[in-house]
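Our platform keeps sequence and structure together, in a single record for each protein. Such a record has a labelled line for the sequence and another for the backbone structure tokens. This encoding replaces a full spatial description with a residue-level series of whole-number codes. Below, we set out a record of this kind in full and without editing:
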Amino acid sequence: MLILIAGPYRSGTGGDPRAMAANLARLEEAAWPVFAAGHLPVIGEWIALPVLRSAGAGPTDPLADQVLYPAADRLLGHCDAVLRLPGRSAGADQDVATARRRGLPVYHDTAEIPRREHRTPREAA
């Protein structure tokens, strides 16, 4: 499964770049457990932040609202599930609502994610 990891990024940071970096690091900490369970983790900011930089903007720029939320929404069109990490976040709550409307599972802990046994292409044949 392609699993969107959703949680606070800008929320509660007051625009402080160090606080946003710490939030992104917390999101990224969940990437390994998702991958180790046999899935592919993705975080919306991994897509949105380079898009913003290429437009000459950053996460606190007014353009960010036109990129961060739409990027996550477009990404969710390709995802199979959402992992919602703790913390207040309107964007992550929006991701969960979108996932539920689309019938996607929403997990709240990496332990809830079903493990998939990894097989190499040769083993699958």
Summary: The chain has a mean pLDDT of 93. The two ends are 20 Å apart (CA to CA). The first strand starts at residue 2 and ends at 6. The helical segments are 17-29, 31-36, 44-54, 68-76, 90-101, 121-124.
